[in-house]
Specification:
This protein has 299 residues and is mostly beta strands. The chain is built from two helices and 23 strands. The radius of gyration is 19 Å and the shape is globular. It starts with 10 loop residues before the first helix and ends in a 10-residue tail after the last strand.
């Protein structure tokens, strides 16, 4: 799987939330580096960078919360945001005075304000976005360590769409491994092009939604919001909004129950693909956990 990022309330609320967020923040760059500091660096990639040299290019850090989809940061969550260097597309965030200690996990988000018209940048429909997602653990969490942290290459390859599409789904209750009340299930909406069930693998570029639900507490039916940021390699209908050929993939988060996928945890899925439109979409197929070898492999 690739690193991308793809990961992140309803879609319209997300757009206005980001506008307010960016209007309230000051773009800043950290200075200095030694062992007492926490510095997060990396580079950005993607055609949107070279094709839009006049547009703002920004990188933001948020504390990771496994119970909150990556695409729905609250106003108070952003710890620091900086402008990336437009000559080599590198970024450097000094988190020393941020209140984030070594061992804390964060989310890393970068974007190009494609429709920038002056003033403070904002993230809305038409903008290009990239998120950090670990291709081995399938997690958006980046664990900080003392000193220099390498955020790697963030590929800005997702476009923001103005939609309010969301799903309601059920878990099978009479087939295979049946999750018990109180257990946590991680669920991902994935375009079928990025899914290989035989290899138990998902290309993170093709993830278009994610949720963490507690069995019997959050449903049924269980909710899952689609991301407003969708990979440019996926065909999207814009007016009206629509996506075709999606599947749900789930992980029974119990070995250990930590809000993230781990080797040996059961993998579930919907047998048939489905299409979505704007608004509520009820997924007819239930998610099944076959057991019998359908577990996450070791990295």
């Amino acid at each position: 799987m690739k690193k991308s990022p793809k990961i992140f309330s309803r879609s319209r609320h997300l757009l206005w939330l980001w506008i307010c967020l960016l209007a309230c923040l000051t773009v800043a760059c950290g200075q200095g580096s030694d062992n007492s500091e926490i510095i997060l660096t990396g580079t950005l990639q993607g055609a949107a960078l070279t094709e839009n040299p006049d547009k703002p290019l920004l990188v933001a850090v948020l504390p990771d919360d496994p119970h909150r989809p990556l695409a729905t940061p609250a106003l108070a969550d952003v710890v620091l945001m900086v402008s990336a260097d437009k000559t080599d597309y590198s970024f450097r965030l000094d988190l020393t005075e941020s209140g984030l200690a070594p061992g804390r996990s964060v989310n890393l988000v970068a974007f190009v304000d494609m429709n920038y018209a002056g003033g403070l940048p904002s993230l809305d429909a038409g903008d290009m976005v990239g998120f950090f997602i670990d291709a081995q653990t399938f997690s958006a969490a980046y664990e900080l360590k003392p000193g220099l942290n390498d955020g790697g290459n963030l590929l800005i390859n997702r476009k923001i769409y103005d939609h309010q599409a969301w799903l309601q789904f059920h878990l099978a209750e009479n087939f295979g491994v049946v999750p018990s009340a109180g257990e946590n299930v991680l669920v991902y909406a994935v375009h079928s092009q990025g899914l290989d069930l035989a290899a138990r693998s998902v290309d993170t570029d093709y993830v278009v939604g994610m949720a963490s639900v507690v069995v019997g507490q959050d449903g049924p039916p269980y909710p899952l919001d689609l991301l407003t940021a969708i990979y440019t390699g996926i065909a999207v209908s814009e007016d009206p909004f629509g996506l075709d050929d999606l599947r749900l993939v789930a992980i029974l988060d119990n070995a250990p129950a930590n809000g993230r996928p781990d080797a040996g945890e059961y993998v579930g899925f919907t047998l048939l693909a489905f299409d979505v439109a704007d608004g509520l979409n009820v997924v007819a197929n239930r998610i099944i956990f076959p057991g019998d070898g359908f577990v996450l492999p070791s990295p």
